[in-house]
Amino acid sequence: MFMEVNMEKESPEKAKKRKIDDDGDGDKAREESESFNGFKVKAVINENARQKYLFLHCTKNDEDAVVLLEKTPFDSSMTDQILSDNTKIRQTLQNDIYHTYSALLPENLNGVKATVICPASEKHIKKYTEQESFVIQETAELYTKVTLPYLEKHAFSTKWVYNILEKKKEADRIVFENADPDTGFILLPDMKWDGKDLNSLYLQAIVHKHGLKSVRDLNKSHLPLLNNILEEGADVINQEYGIPKSKLRIYIHYQPSYYHLHVHFNHINLESPGFDADRAHLLVDVIENIEMNDSYYQDKTLVYRVREQDELYKLYQDEGYFVDFPINTSISSNSSLTAAS
Amino acid sequence: MFMEVNMEKESPEKAKKRKIDDDGDGDKAREESESFNGFKVKAVINENARQKYLFLHCTKNDEDAVVLLEKTPFDSSMTDQILSDNTKIRQTLQNDIYHTYSALLPENLNGVKATVICPASEKHIKKYTEQESFVIQETAELYTKVTLPYLEKHAFSTKWVYNILEKKKEADRIVFENADPDTGFILLPDMKWDGKDLNSLYLQAIVHKHGLKSVRDLNKSHLPLLNNILEEGADVINQEYGIPKSKLRIYIHYQPSYYHLHVHFNHINLESPGFDADRAHLLVDVIENIEMNDSYYQDKTLVYRVREQDELYKLYQDEGYFVDFPINTSISSNSSLTAAS
């Protein structure tokens, strides 16, 4: 989420300033002294205890601002300094061989990354505000009645995908191609991968065939295509990166982020939020389900999560889908439990 | 992982000391002054940039020790102090409305939780050392040949489960029971849930019927049982906790952590590592797959992850399973890429 901030093209002056500011040693004099002075917190709009981030909606001089704070990871090359006398520790519990402490690290080893968007539009605030999620059980009937009309009405542009397939863009990034128009695909690194750290390896296979919107459209006629992706994809990744098949997660998203069939290849060590059981469909499962039943993905109820800003959520709400599962608006994390416990 | 440290029963003296140490205000004089003085780092045994933890294997006075460090979450009740003058910020980038900074928070707002196990046995060190993971595609044949004999040989004790079902233990924790011996189940909070925060709601439904080891054993005869769990489980959770079905993840693990059929109920907001697509099988999918094909879970290839310390990994290795997918031992995150990029 942090990484999604889109930096627009910067002027030469700004680039120069950035170079100065970005030298990372922290000792150089700054052009301007900076502080959070003047920021007033209006609301906590998102926080995550596991990932240690906190997003705030603030105002500064009557302008809206979004402040994104995230604790930095430990620098594992600094272990000697982390365990030095400069770290103050206070015991909170001791039991036999187990000791727990609250520790205060030297400031320089314990930084926070902050991103400020100011002035922030309503859209910025919405983007970083935690959204409520809901589960949809999309039956074959609901697909035909709600989801498919939505897809057809929007005819989401996949021009950028065709640019890749036609080598007009990103041609130098292609790792492998099977050029067959029906059963072929292009394999290239996902934008989220730095291309270096093999533990976070992330590639995508994009099929040459047009018109396959998602897993919903797949049947036995697509088995040669799916088997090619599974076998050639895994083979190429083993050859090029030395990662065997037993270290790969190979899956299709439903709902996908764009409606042109593509397959995700991740290193097993990558903690990808997109690998949840209500979004990721393993390619081997997809192949075997279709082998078992030609119309498996046309008949099957598919479960996925939507967020309150998603158009699909609104369409299912309009359809009355959530009436059967009314939302209890009195839910709060402080509600007392009526259950035995 | 951090929460897994098992504290043994403590003596009254220790309990008293803990009470003193645990008062949380940080100002009281300590019985003993503490520091990491004398700890020598032997190895980084695990680290996670997303969750901000770092596990170290150390020695202290020639004894082995494990040091577990984890950054604490932001305290969202302290936002005014976080954005005060006491936080030093240094700009690293500025582009139009986007500003990024590295920030140094006042020590007291930026703590680290440390757990020390000393002296640590080899088993402790192993427990906290990152393990390599592997994907197994368990075909019906491999299940019969490798997995099933392993399950039968070990006849894993489920006495503690029978204690719950027979109300010998944890009877006061039961939220709901359908007492039918074939189609009934007991619903109770999972140990991982504090029973309070509804956003991390976690319950388990444990079936009364004995002998159902896992999803592999399910067929059409179990549909009444599975439908009961799905419907009554979701209804009870809605009544007792005010959480509607559209906010629940309901799933079965394969491999499970114990071999007596049980179903997990999570609030959708809970970030549970057990919800990965290579472990969690949604209950609605299980029901529909069986309705489609009585022997779906006997015939189906099931994909799951094993870790190098797991006995199943060793058994599949002995079986020659990984020979088809040789592990390239030269893999490292610094390997240069041979692929086009």
Can you give a write-up of this model?
- The structure is a homodimer of 341-residue chains.
- The first copy, chain A, has nine helices and 14 strands.
- The first copy, chain A, has 341 residues and is an alpha+beta fold.
- The first copy, chain A, has three domains: 2-72 and 112-127, 2-Layer Sandwich (Phosphorylase Kinase, domain 1), CATH 3.30.200; 78-110, no CATH class; 133-323, 2-Layer Sandwich (HIT family, subunit A), CATH 3.30.428.10.
- A six-stranded antiparallel β-sheet of chain A has the order 8-9-10-12-11-13.
- In chain A, a hairpin with a 4-residue loop joins strand 1 and strand 2.
- In chain A, helix 6 (223-241) packs antiparallel against helix 7 (283-292).
- Chain A is globular, with a radius of gyration of 25 Å.
- Chain A starts with 11 loop residues before the first helix and ends in a 23-residue tail after the last helix.
- Mean pLDDT of chain A is 85; it is low at 1-33 and 326-341.
- At the A-B interface, helix 1, strand 1, strand 2, strand 3 and helix 2 of A face helix 1, strand 1, strand 2, strand 3 and helix 2 of B.
- Strand 6 (112-117) of chain A pairs antiparallel with strand 5 of chain B.
- Chains A, B: Substrate binds at residues 160, 170, 190, 192, 253-264.
- Chains A, B: Its main location: cytoplasm.
- Chains A, B: Decapping scavenger enzyme that catalyzes the cleavage of a residual cap structure following the degradation of mRNAs by the 3'->5' exosome-mediated mRNA decay pathway.
- Chains A, B: Residues 1-14 have a biased composition (Basic and acidic residues).
- Chains A, B: Keywords: Acetylation, Cytoplasm, Hydrolase, mRNA processing, mRNA splicing, Nucleus, Phosphoprotein.
